User: What shape does this take?
Amino acid sequence: MRTHPTDLTRRSVLGAAIAAAGTGVLAACSGSPGTDHGSMNHGAAGEESPRGYVSPNGPEVAAAEAKRGSGPVRAVKLTATPTPLDLGGGLTVKSWAYGDRLPGQEVRVTAGDTLALTLANHLPQPTSLHWHGIALRNDMDGVPGLTQGAVRPGGTFAYRFTVPDPGTYWIHPHSGLQQDRGLYAPLIVEDPREPLAYDKEWVVVLDDWVDGVDGSTPEAVLAELRHGMAGHSGADMPMDTPMDTPSPTARAKSPSRMMMGATSRLLGGDAGDVAYPYYLVNGRTAEAPSVFSAKPGDRIRLRIINAGGDTPFRVALGGHELTITHTDGFPVQHAKADALILGMGERYDVLVTAGDGVFPLTAVAEGKDAPGREAAAMALLRTGSGSAPTASVRPEELAGRLLTPNRLRAAESVALSAQEPDRTIRLRLTGDMTRYNWAFNGKPYTSGRRHPVRAGERVRLVFTNSTRMWHPIHLHGHTFALARVPGGPRKDTAGLLPNRTVVVDFDADNPGLWMTHCHNVYHSESGMMTVLGYRK
Assistant: This one.
């Protein structure tokens, strides 16, 4: 019989053009202290959407929501607040989180339900809530300056929408660098006609952690990256390569967090910018891991979420084979593997049959883990007696059969029909490590720059990476199919290697203004975001 954990205990991104959110028109739209408020601003701060585009709360959006229906209401309250967080082993940091948990309280609904979630902002900054992977109504997507006004300090915001598709999703802010604190939580949407048979479910949230460690903050990390990457071309560099002096502000507040030499052949070279002091599974370090208990022979469904800011993870469960059933919430034809690679924002569901003993679920920071520079998170599966492995364990499965999305095929029930695109949009990823000027088509994000689409079209997005770094690309409000893979899986986040092209197709069936961006929080905050806008 399936059992579901209750109140699984956490965060994401953006906002180059929204640092001033919470003032002027946006502040007026964000709600007053203690008051639910659902008003929207539909363009950049103080502006309306450019003429000719569907407004986030326009009649087209309302009509699309009506087609999704309105099921039983699931009411939830969530509070974003400063709080101390216990990462285990005596390590406590001061950060921001949803409540006092890391991850935040799990939100669990059934497909077709109406989710009514009230966000209370007790932070010292404006914030928002983005529903990563959900095809929801546009005015609930949670992007300040585009689809809503930021929720100002002391204010509340009432999110309400129908949740259409079962799967594994997550929630996080879309405001500045708030993703790289403790603001995230799993969002699990159950299938009322669940086809999988399993005994237990284990929600696994991966993260890279810097906030509150020796005075570090995500803002100080970005300041150092912008100043200190001069001279770093993005090519492979040895670990002893001298670094330029970081900004005085960043240096004064915390140790250097800039990483050189994080290389991965799998990712085409440079694997990341940030040397995180800790990596976490469900809010715990490998030295004091979280433990999931089961019985030998139990069939366990793992829902794995990468909530990291700058880290792809290679994941394996020691002594076990993985059966992959879903990616980014949508079912695939079942595939076997020993290990997975998850970019930031990606999710995988897998089934395992539990052995007898104590087994490490290890998530290695791809390209960042090396002798003398251990970079991995770990949790434990315990089904019997035995000693727990140490934090330095590296299961042999990590070097075994590695699953990548091009090996997957969509389940027949969700496969995108074969059809030539009605519209092709070409987006070139630009920028370099020297200037830290990430963008699309050489133009950093502004909310008023839109790539037009029309409802009913089959849209093809051609992402060409002209940079020397790997980027995970995420599309809001839709799922796409990998167009160059016959019967390609349905996803909302896809990795793009240096000097390569990824082609994806989606059906334009959800009107509004929708972000697409790199899910490396430091790249998106530096400008690698843009908007797909539905024309009226």
Remarks:
- Residues 195-408 form a domain with the Immunoglobulin-like fold (CATH 2.60.40.420).
- The mean pLDDT is 87.
